[in-house]
Amino acid sequence: MNNIIEIKNLNKFYGKKQALSDVTLSIKPGMFGLLGRNGAGKTTLMRTLAALLQKKSGSVTICGIPIENEKEIRKIIGYLPQEFSMYPSMNVMEAMDYLALLSGLNKQERRERIEVLLQKVNLTEHRKKKIRALSGGMKRRLGIAQALLNNPKVLIVDEPTAGLDPEERIRFRNLLSEVAEERIVILSTHIVGDIEATCENIAILDSGKVLYQGTVHNLLAVADGKVFTKTVDRKELPTLKRDLMITGMHTQGRDVSVRFLTEHGTSNAEACAPNIEDAYMFYLKKNGAELEVNGNVILE
Amino acid sequence: MLFWSELKKTIAGIPYLLFVIVVVIALNSQGVLNFSNDKVIEPNPTANQNYGIKNEEIPELIMPAAIEALYAEFLENRYQTYPIGFVKYVKLNDDEQRKVAEIIAAITNIEIEKIYASQDSCSDRNDNAIVVGDNANIQPDGNGGFVISLESGIAEEVQKDLELSVRKDMSYSQFKELMQSVDDILGGGSNYAAESLIGYGHVPITYEEAVRRYELVKNRDRFTGGYARLFSDYAVAMTFSILPVFLAVIIAMKDKRAKMSELIYIRKISSAKIITMRFLAVLAAAMLPVIVLSYISNISIWNLYPEMKLDYLAPLKYDLGWILPSAMITAAVGICLTELTDTPIAVAVCALWWFIDVNLGMKSVSASCTLFRLAPRHNSGTKSYFRTQDYIDHFPKILANRLLFTGLSIVLVVGTIFIYEAKRKGKFLWKK
Question: A228 has which bridge partners?
Fold first, then answer.
C-alpha cells in the first residue's frame, strides 16, 4: 500500500452542471492545500475523496485503494466537513465516544484515543462541556479530534478556519501542521493565508478545473516581477482600479499606498516580492478566470 | 454498546417523555391499567347469575330478527352501514327503496302495497311528531328546564300492525342471498351482509357453557392471560400502531438536524449495523413503558385469584407477541421513509394508515384480526378476558397477521440499510 492519492481525469456532474472537469492530481504525505474561490469545486473534490460522492468518470486511488471500495476507504480516511457539528445535547466526551464507537474502536481503545486527542486539541478541560456550549474555535478543534479518531492515513479538512478569530486560526493551523507529520492532510480553503502558513504543495481549482499544481515556491516564482507598490493621490484611485489588478490598499491621509499586479511594469512604481495572495490572483487572471476586483481584495 | 448509545439518544429528551405520557394517558382512558374490579366469577348453579349472551348462526333466530331490523330501517329510510369503517346512514332513492320493499315482500310474503302503506303511515306519524308535537314527551329536567323527547317505537307499532314473519318455505341460504342484495343496494358494510347476519343470532349462555368458559380462563389463560390480551388489544389499537413512528422519525432525522450525517457516513461501521441498532433502540424505547404498564395492569388482578395458578409471564408474552409486531412495523415505516426522503413524511403516512385501520375495525372490534389489519382487534368490551375459546379459534389468524407485519418490518429495515448505504456513497442526490 503506497501513501499517495492519485486522481486521474476525474469528472463530476450535478445534473448537467459539471462540478469537476478532468481533475488530475497527485498528493503525497504532508500538508496539501487546495485553493480556490467559493464554488470552485473544492468541496465536491473533498467529498469525492471521502467516498461521499459518486464520480462520473476518471479514477481515484487513495493509498492504493480504489475509491469505489468505500469500506476500505472509510477505514483510512478522516474527514472534517465544511459544516461541522455534533449532537448539541451531548458533551464533548459523549460525542467523541459515540463517533469512536462508529469507527470500530473497542472500549479501551476509545478511552485512550479520546484522551490523547482531547489533549492534542487542548480540550481536555472541556470534556464535560455540552457541544452547544463550545465556541467556534473549540468546535473546530473538536472537529479535528473526531477526524483523527481512527488514526487515518488521510485527513480531509474542508474550509476549517472560516469564521475563526485570528488567534484560533493560528492555533488551528499549527494543529494541522502537527497532524500532517504522519499523514496526508488535504486542506481546502479560500483563505490564502491558511495555505501560506501551512502548505508546501498546493493546487488551485477554478470552475472545477485544476489551474495549478505544484509547490508554493513555484507559484510565487510565476508572479515574480509582476507585483508593484505605488503611492497615489486618492483622486487617481478610480483610474488605477480600472487599469490594474489591485491586491492591496493602505490609506495614509490623502494618499493611498496601492499594491497591484501587472505583467508590463509601470512608471513610478516599486517592484516588490510577491506573496502567495498575489501569485494566486495572478495565476487566476493569467488563466482567464473572471475576477471581480474593483479595487477590493477578494481574498482575505 | 452501540445499541445502548442509540437507546440513550432515543430516550433522552422531551419527545420521549411525551411519548410515555401519551401512552399512559391513552391506556388509562380505556380503563386497562387497573382490572381490580373485574374478577372472573366461577359459575354457580344455585346463584342467580347472568352468564351473558353469545352469537350463533341459528337461522330460526337470525331470520326474524334481521327482517324486523330491515323493516324498521326501511320505514324510516335510514340504514346504518360501515362502508369503510366509519358509520354512515344511507338514505335510498325511490327506486332503491322499492327494491328493498320487494325483498321484504319476497321474504315475508306481504304485499308490496301494504309495505308501502305502512311506510306512509309511519312517516305521517313522524311528521306529526315533529310538526305538531303529538308524539313528543315534555318532562321537567329538574333544573328549571325541560327535556323534550320524541316518542319512540313508531316503527315498532307499525310493525305490529303488519305482522312480519319470514315465509315458511324460505330457506336460510335464500334468505342470506336476499339480505346480501339489500347490502349491495346499501353499498356494503351493513348488518345484512351474509357474513354479518350472525350478529342477529343472540343466544343466552348456559350454565354448562359458562363453566367451560371459566375452566378455559382458569386452565388455559391462567386468569392473567385474558387481561393481558385485553390490555394488548388497546395498546396496539390506541398507541402502538402509530406512536413508535415518532421515535423512529426523530432518531432518523437527528443526524441531519445536528448536521452530523457526513461525520457518520465516513465511519467504518457498516450500514447494516447502524440501521439495525437504531431500529432495535427505537423498539426497546417504545416497548419499555408498555412492558411496565402491562405488568402494572396485570398485577392489579393477581390478588383476585388466591390459591390459583397464575401465568406471571402472560403480560410479557402478549407484549412481545401481540404489541411488538405493531411497534416494529410503525418504527420500520418511520425509519425507512425518513431515510428515503429526509423528511418526517412517515408520520403522516402512519397516521393515515392508523386512522383508516382503526376505523375499519370499528364495526367489529370483537374479532377483527384479518391478515392485513395494522391493529388486529380481539375485544368484546370489559368481559373480553372471558373469551379464551374465541381467542383459541382466532389464534391462527392473529398469528398470521403478526407474522406478516414482523416479516414486513424486517423487509423495510433491510430496505433502509440499502437506502442508507446508497446515501453514504452520495447517491440520491436528486433530492438536493
Answer: A260, A271
pLDDT of residue B145: 38
| Structural domains counted in chain A | 2
**pLDDT (tens digit, 9 = 90+) per residue, B250-263?**
999 999 888 899 99
Interface pTM (ipTM) of the complex?
0.85
Domain boundary (A207, A241, A270) is at A207
Instruction: State whether the Cα torsion B397-B401-B407-B410 is positive or negative.
Output: negative
The CA distances from residue B360 to A123, B27, B86, B234, B333, in Å, are: 58, 20, 7, 15, 20
| CATH, residue A98 | 3.40.50.300
d(CA A160, CA A191): 10
Residues in A lying within 8 Å of B, measured between beta carbons:
14, 47-48, 50-54, 70-71, 74-75, 77-79, 81, 83-89, 97-99, 101-104, 107, 146, 150
A273 and A200 in a common domain: no
Length of chain B: 432
The Cβ of residue A66 has, within 10 Å, a number of other Cβ atoms equal to: 12
CB contact under 8 A, A54 and B425: yes
User: Are A52 and A162 within one domain?
Assistant: yes
Considering the domain architecture, whether residues A269 and A173 belong to the same structural domain is answered as no
pLDDT of residue B210: 86
Interface test with B, best of A16, A87, A107 (most B CBs within 10 A): A87
Contacts with B5 from chain A: Cβ below 8 Å:
97-98, 101
- Rounded to a whole number of angstroms, the distance from the CA of A86 to the nearest CA of chain B is 6
A298 in a structural domain: no
Per-chain mean pLDDT for chain A: 87
Task: Say which amino acid occupies B85.
Answer: G
| Residue A126 falls inside a structural domain | yes
Q: Which of B253, B264, B266, B428 to mutate to test the interface with A (most CBs of A within 10 A)?
A: B266
Say whether residue B259 is in contact with chain A using an 8 A CB cutoff.
yes
Q: Which domain holds residue A262?
A: 222-286
